[in-house]
Amino acid sequence: MLIRRLHSSIQSFGKIVPSNLKGKKKSSQEWLTRQLNDPYVERAKIMNYRCRSAFKLLEIDQKYSLIKPGFTVVDCGAAPGSWSQVAVKHSNADGSKQGMPKGMVIGIDLLQIYPIEHATLFGNMDFTKPENQDKIRAQLGERRIDCILSDMAPNATGVRYLDQENIITLCYSVLRFAILMSSPNASLLMKVWDNAEVSVLEKNIQKYYTHVKRIKPSASRSDSAENFLLARGFVGIER
User: Fold this and answer.
1) What is the pLDDT confidence band of residue 201, given thresholds at 50, 70 and 90?
2) Which residue among the candidates 68, 89, 102, 191 is catalytic per the annotation?
């Protein structure tokens, strides 16, 4: 219902043209204009989410029920923290749903992440480094992961094929970790950019999950090459 109400409210927004763009680069002008006219940006402020990307996860979770009370969630590429904020609430890591099991949320990012109550965050850490994955394992203890999220993306180089190769490399690092650490029937959600290798990645994921599909939530900008691969029903290495 939340997502439906948001979609209907979008129609009421008129385009805002900022008046303080003099002297700014064209790219900066375009970014500022887009931000001012993006209803998800304003909605994120109202609902106290750190950025608009929260609504991507909210929409996906509303449709597919990825995160439930008691779930253990690992958020890769967590900064600034909006997905971890959603995960804390939906997994009941904050204990707000009395009588329901409490979950655990762990976030990691190359950037610093300001603290989020009831989440364990590893800032300034590269997820792809084995020693940092070991830190996540140590934090998990005996727990297995019920849902792995990845909104990771490499810094753009401006070279299309290289950028595409880099994000696919990140995806495989998440997939390897998921195969080793997921609980039975766990889910995996990862960001990709449209390119020929995504289909190959999708087929590889299908070896370990019963359902895999490519999705693009409404909060993902229409002019973006961004998509998400959603895998559900982790079955492990042997099928």
Assistant:
1) very high
2) 191
What is the mean pLDDT of the segment spanning 193-204? 93
Closest Cα to residue 83, out of 45, 104, 55, 120? 55
Average per-residue pLDDT for the chain? 87
Q: 220 falls in which pLDDT band (50, 70, 90)?
A: confident
User: What is the structure's pLDDT at 33?
Assistant: 39
Identify the three-state secondary structure at position 191.
strand
CA gap 40, 236 in Å, rounded = 37
- What CA–CA distance (Å, rounded) separates 91 from 107? 14
Query: How many CB atoms are closer than 10 A to CB 211?
Result: 11
- 139 and 57 within one domain: yes
CA-CA distances (angstroms) from residue 129 to 38, 85, 167, 191? 35, 24, 15, 19
What is the total count of domains within the chain?
2
Mean pLDDT of the region 58-67 = 96
Q: Is 191 a catalytic residue?
A: yes
How far is C-alpha 175 from the geometric centre of its chain's CA atoms? 14
| Same domain (yes/no): 26, 60 | no
* Domain that residue 187 falls in: 53-234
